Amino acid sequence: MKILLFDMDGVLLESLGYHIALQETVRIMAKSLGFGDLTLSTDDIAAFEAGGINKEWDEAAICTALLLEAAWKLDPKRTLPEDLRAPKGSNLNPQSTPDFNAIAHRLSSRDLIEFPPLERAIQRFTETDHFSPVQYQILHELINGARDPQRSLTHRVFQELVLGSAEFTRIYGLPAMLACESYLLKHDISNLSPAESARLLDWMSKPGHSASVITSRPSRAPAGIFSTPETELGTELVGLKDIPIVGWGGLTWLAQQCQTDQQTFVKPSPVHALAAMRVALGDNQQAALLEAGALVETGRGGPAWRRLDGAQVFIFEDTPGGIKSLQAARETLEKISISIRPSFFGIARNPVKRKALLASGAQVYPTFSQALDLSI
Q: Is 291 in contact with 278 (CB distance < 8 Å)?
């Protein structure tokens, strides 16, 4: 049996829309604080992702916190506007601009790397004592609220850019501020040609062959959970509309069932890879998630896991998170006497990302097509 697990962004497609939306979000925040058109470079984004900080919501909030820190050195009362449609404040003339790459590396340092991304950022901004109580409160609210559109200006701006203003208002019920079209529809590029998509679908239709998407991108969720269908937009773009998905929506649902933090089960957690293997075999997403969570929590698994015994499992990732998730899933299964044969394929051209993938134990290829040819 062969199972293929595909990350979405950077693997199945070039998620230019997310990165451009992140850069535009940081530019808008910088401009609102008086820094002009300052924003992230592609190397800055790669440095964040290499350190496991790969949610643009988090990156946008962290970079905005760094911008605020720099702005307060010149104007201690400077703050973000509540609404971007309001008039902007005066420009600042800093002697040096914030170093986004430096903070990405600081947040990936040995003493912080084991913490969740937003917790790392809180620790970074509490290392110094030069903030006033009001400034600390602003930073904490900015970082801790990074994933909440009701609390976070950076989240709202990013999501409006990603979805487009009209769709943003329809889904969130919040007024648009930017009058823009969807950056996903405008900028994302499929890494599969129509012929390659057809070939992969044909491969998946044969007995003993299955695949799923393993992503932290927002995805449709079970009833009662709010999550936007951004993964489904991606699978449609690459010609794999009906491929099973374990994304942010499902993992958020599981976290709610377990009364824990949303980030708990996202890769590098073994739960993510375990559930992705189970949905690839045709299991219902909710059942796969619940059983994966229970297996990791208790070390006991039901008979359905035996279907994985002896399976070849190929994972395709552009960051180490999914690689670590499958490695941990293999160890979890070994504890119940089930053996899988994993292969780890990293997809990257950027030297920083290649180095991180190689360090995680992956074989690294510059294109998804090259890696795919080795598995089907």
A: yes
